[in-house]
Amino acid sequence: TLTRPSPDRLVFFLGGRDLEMVTIRELLEQEAPGRFHDKGLGWGARASSYEGEIRTARSQGFTAVLVELENDLGLHDNALLIADHHGPRAGKEAPTSLHQVFQLLGLPPTRWTRHFDLVAANDRGYIPALTALKASPREIAEIRAADRHAQGVTAEEEAEAEQAARNLETDASGLLTIARLPHAHTATLTDRLHTDLGGPGYRNLLVLSPGEVNFFGDGQIVLALAERYPNAWCGGALPDRGFWGLHCDTVDSAKIRRIVSALLDDERYLTPSNEHAGLASLDQNE
């Protein structure tokens, strides 16, 4: 649980944009006007993008709240809080960043809405979590479309994902689906493949993009990859299902494909979730 100073002494700095981050911004516009900074950053955003603003806030006696920002400034004192739901903070029972910001603002439970529930579920556990909330097909489609819009997905990228979905490969005796996507907005592909949105489904998915590789699927594979590549990101409803990703300008994506295939071929890493054909995995919302 986050230590909660007085809400009026907090200044928020927003990380990579997706539907949850847009929702957090809208909440802050209502509850903390003038006390947040949003530069519309992408996935993997770092606190150094706000270095000047953070130093100014701290010098004025405010507590800086890093919302899904890598703390690359080495700030470790009482004038810093972190709201995040990735890496070691991820988990199917862990509070999402939206929950954490809501708590830091000291808002009463009556302010929490159905929309917040849907946004948080989508961020934590993608479509399976929305389904567990008894979201209607229309609600699921609307949340996913809003998430892609928040990420800045273009019509061209949607078309490229459509093409990628028609050219899938498989490995590890069918346990792994491999896709080649010419951009890193993986939601365009994972949404299309999900059975609840009319797709064919998949057990585990490896998406190879220029300069980036992403895996969605079995939680034990995610944790094994996270241990092997400490500079990567991960999250989701761990330890059951999750996502993992890495900027790989200097890493051989073909090597990562071999590693994932080998892990899936090792039955020690398989969990019951991998036994259900057509199960689509979590989405990192990128």
Radius of gyration, rounded? 19 Å
Number of strands: 10
User: Strands of the largest sheet, in order across it?
Assistant: 5-6-7-8-10-9
Kindly state the percentage of residues in helix: 25-40%
Contiguous low-pLDDT stretches (5 residues minimum) are: 273-286
Largest sheet: 6 strands, mixed
> What structural class should be given to the helix and strand makeup?
alpha/beta
Instruction: Report the mean per-residue pLDDT as an integer.
Output: 89
Helices and strands, in order, run as EHEHEEHHHHEEHEEHEEH
Spatial shape: globular
Q: What fraction strand?
A: 15-25%
Task: Report how far the terminal alpha carbons are from each other.
Answer: 26 Å
Oligomeric status of the shown chains? Answer: single chain
Instruction: Enumerate how many helices there are, as a single number.
Output: 9
Summarize the structure.
The chain contains nine helices and ten strands.
Notable features of this structure?
10 strands; six-stranded mixed beta sheet; 286 residues; single chain; alpha/beta; four-stranded parallel beta sheet; 9 helices
Secondary-structure topology with pairs:
Blueprint: E1 10-14, H1 19-31, E2 36-37, H2 51-59, E3 63-67, E4 80-83, H3 97-104, H4 114-132, H5 137-150, H6 155-165, E5 169-171, E6 176-180, H7 187-193, E7 204-209, E8 212-218, H8 219-228, E9 233-235, E10 241-247, H9 253-265
Parallel strand pairs: 1-2, 1-3, 3-4, 6-7
Antiparallel strand pairs: 5-6, 7-8, 8-10, 9-10
Helix pairs in contact: 1-3, 4-5, 6-7
